[in-house]
Amino acid sequence: MIIVLKSGVDEAKVDVLKNWLTEKGLVISPIYGAEKTVLGLVGDTSHLSVDEVSMHEAVEKVLKVQEPFKKANRKFHPDNSVIKVGNVLVGGKDLIVIAGPCSVESEEQIIQIAHQVKNYGASILRGGAFKPRTSPYSFQGLRVEGLMLLKKAGEAAGLPIVSEITNPAYLEIFEEYVDFIQVGARNMQNFELLKELGRIKKPILLKRGFANTLEELLMACEYIMNEGNQNVILCERGIRTHETYTRNTLDLSAVPALKRMSHLPVLVDPSHGSGLSWMVEPLSKAAIAAGADGVIIEVHNNPGKALSDGPQSITPSEFSYLMPKLREYARLEGKHISIPHTVAYAGTPGSFANEAAEKLYHTHVLTGFERFEDVFDAVLSNKVEVGVVPVENSLAGKVTEVVDLLDDDRLEITDRIRLPVRQMLVAPPGTELSSIRKIYSHEKAFEQCRKFLSTMPDCQLIKYSTTSAAASAVAALNDKYSAAIASETAARLNRLEILKDSIQDDENNYTEFVVFRKRK
Ligand code: PEP
Ligand code: MN
Question: N or C, fewer C-beta in 10 Å, the chain?
């Protein structure tokens, strides 16, 4: 039963009502809304008639709640509940993207994925440590060590973490290590576990069991809330149907249904929902369109070798392309996904464009692309916000390929920067100048070093996409015949030695770089 109080009613009149209800053995759960105060009554109210409650002066309206779930019921709490996970608010204006591997497999794996998903806009890191596997012979998870590694990775990347609990015996450890505790599909009706989770304050991610109705999901939720913990977030993750094409049948109608039935945030798991990595994108978009507060996505650095759920895991690179698309879908629903500013530059680390990008955007996430057209593709597909490419060199003239690519109505130039360029002849340590027969570099670098190259007539010049890629290739070849023309930074990053410094024809060699973006 729900009692809506009159606005601005006298406290004394409310107390009379509350005392009367308490004497009848009822538990009152008050909810203070922006406009109205509501008293929710839980427990058996069958002996109470609407008329006798309505007679009290403080009462505006009395509603009988037909549904068996009370605390999760939207009638009890008409506004959406916003639940805090670490410093992330779930259920509000932000569309939450939880990402990470099915299982934590090693320190290196989880730290690498944590940084990557954070850079691409994830707000919470996932990773299973206690895995409820169908077969006892499958990988069971790294258990407590897995939780410790997940915590380390979350701290390194600045992300709260979520992991699944399977047994109340581990509650203390979860309370210590994890920000957000997941109850998986297989444990949705483990009522003893749910009651224990109700006695703590940490937010709980309650996944729908694969054979459970929405009402059963909300009743499971009631077990947690009734013990005191109101911080529950629901998750649709697919149910069993006769269909076998997908691992489960993702029931997207659960989203609007749960939002209508309950005030709690609702997430969708398209990875377990389909079991197929290529379905993660369309199902995530559909989940957002259906009104979900967020999605939980399995991301693995090498899905082919994943110890669990590889076929449904997407790569960090696929995740990076997915995020800007989801941001657009979220925008249509009035929700926001914040993706850190990202910059694409031409070349690999150590390229001159990398140096220009770093000067302009030292706090941003920088990604190198070996080919100029890949930098343009990244900007046009919204993978990054801006691109940094060289357009002209004082000795070698215009970079015609870039000038042509910039001639595109969809793009606009927003900034320019001129950098002095010193070219170096670099080679593996110990290489003699006289033994070199092959020089690798970008053709513009060859044009800037004509005078020097005329002193090396026996050398074959091999064109490379960028000077930094040429330096990496020479480092990989590691023979006494090959050298590259590249920057000092490229030499350092590739552990190459500088055989000759400043080999460009003119001391005053400059390259102009432009910053461009997609027109708004
Ligand atoms: C998981 O999140 O890795 C998992 C096991 O999920 P579910 O309980 O939905 O199968
Ligand atoms: Mn999984």
Answer: C
Residue 269 Cα: closest atom of ligand 1: 9
- Best mutation site among 207, 239, 297 for ligand 1 pocket (most ligand atoms within 8 Å of CB): 207
User: What's the domain count of the chain?
Assistant: 4
Task: Kindly give the number of the ligand 1 atom that is closest to the alpha carbon of 296.
Answer: 2
Taking the C-alpha atoms of residue 102 and residue 110, their distance in angstroms, rounded to an integer, is: 11
Whether residues 185 and 239 share a domain: the answer is: yes
Owning domain of residue 179: 89-304+321-332
Token pair listed for 93: 């204006």
Instruction: Give the separation between CA 110 and CA 157, rounded to whole angstroms.
Output: 10
The token pair that represents 42 in the structure block: 């839980």
> What's 402's domain CATH number?
3.40.190.10
Helix H segments across 36-190? 50-54, 107-119, 143-157, 171-177
Largest CA distance in the chain: 105
For residues 291 and 373, state if they share a domain.
Answer: no
Q: pTM to 2 decimals?
A: 0.77
Q: Tens of pLDDT along 480-495?
A: 999 999 999 999 989 9
- pLDDT bin (cut points 50, 70, 90) of residue 363 is low
Check: CB of residue 267 under 8 Å from CB of residue 205.
yes
Q: Note the ligand closest to the C-alpha atom of 269.
A: 1
Number of helical H runs and strand E runs in the chain: 18, 25
Are 141 and 156 part of one and the same domain? yes
Minimal CA–CA distance to 518: which of 377, 359, 361? 377
* Ligand 1 and 442: CB distance under 6 A: no
Domain of residue 29, CATH code: 3.30.70.1140
Residue 225 and residue 126 share a domain: yes
CA atoms of 54 and 74, how far apart (whole Å): 21
Mark whether 268 and 371 lie in a shared domain: no
Residue with CA nearest ligand 1 atom 3: 102
In this prediction, residue 55 has a pLDDT band, given cuts at 50, 70 and 90, of very high
Tell whether 144 and 291 lie within a shared domain: yes
End-to-end CA distance of the chain: 52
Q: Is the CB of 184 under 6 A from ligand 1?
A: yes
